[in-house]
Amino acid sequence: MAYHFDFTPVLQAAPLLFKGAGVTLALTATGAVCGLALGILGGVARAWKVKPLAGIFAVYVEAIRNTPFLVQLFFIFFGLPSLGVHISEWQAATLAMIINLGAYSTEIIRAGIQAVPHGQLEAAAALALTRAEAFRHVILRPALAKVWPALSSQIIIVMLGSAVCSQIATQELSFAANFIQSRNFRAFETYLLTTLLYLLLAIGVRWALAWLGRYLFKGAR
């Protein structure tokens, strides 16, 4: 029996898909900003072997990198209430993305910091830069410039991984697609358009991050 394509029911529900895409972008933006801040802290602690932070971040990185994102999400959303910590679906999804990205970016940024030549620190000291100025301009900025493409790719991966947040009823893009498909039963059409939306989001975010990298790290490499 031939399948008859009908995108009309899906297009009629397009506002729900766009709203879900907006939630996905909001989750990604929050997760990226906070996750990268956590990654910088962890990267510095591990690269410079700051005790006891270096050991704490080593355990944290291994725990996150060797467990599925879905399990981390379930642990936060279903596990924490057992300890009396009650959070919403949005908060759980955001926290899971921050923690996940923070672990991966810790290792990426650590590699960037360790790649900065030691001679640059000596040059900073010769120029009478303060420790804060030397860290910001001589270590952190060049280190982030070196690893920015890798960080950008990791942010994209986390954004695409946010699709599993629909499992705890976070109303992101996948949740919207599942809701629409359950009402119109046009699975092929619904998920085809959802796939295209994810593709556009990934390309758009990658372009935005590339532009941001050129703006922030001009001349840093």
Automatic annotation (TrEMBL):
<dbReference type="InterPro" id="IPR035906">
    <property type="entry name" value="MetI-like_sf"/>
</dbReference>
<feature type="transmembrane region" description="Helical">
    <location>
        <begin position="20"/>
        <end position="48"/>
    </location>
</feature>
<keyword id="KW-1003">Cell membrane</keyword>
<keyword id="KW-0812">Transmembrane</keyword>
<comment type="similarity">
    <text>Belongs to the binding-protein-dependent transport system permease family. HisMQ subfamily.</text>
</comment>
<keyword id="KW-0472">Membrane</keyword>
<dbReference type="InterPro" id="IPR043429">
    <property type="entry name" value="ArtM/GltK/GlnP/TcyL/YhdX-like"/>
</dbReference>
<keyword id="KW-0813">Transport</keyword>
<feature type="transmembrane region" description="Helical">
    <location>
        <begin position="190"/>
        <end position="209"/>
    </location>
</feature>
<keyword id="KW-1133">Transmembrane helix</keyword>
<dbReference type="Pfam" id="PF00528">
    <property type="entry name" value="BPD_transp_1"/>
</dbReference>
<dbReference type="InterPro" id="IPR000515">
    <property type="entry name" value="MetI-like"/>
</dbReference>
<protein>
    <submittedName>
        <fullName>Amino acid ABC transporter permease</fullName>
    </submittedName>
</protein>
<dbReference type="InterPro" id="IPR010065">
    <property type="entry name" value="AA_ABC_transptr_permease_3TM"/>
</dbReference>
<feature type="domain" description="ABC transmembrane type-1">
    <location>
        <begin position="21"/>
        <end position="209"/>
    </location>
</feature>
<keyword id="KW-0029">Amino-acid transport</keyword>
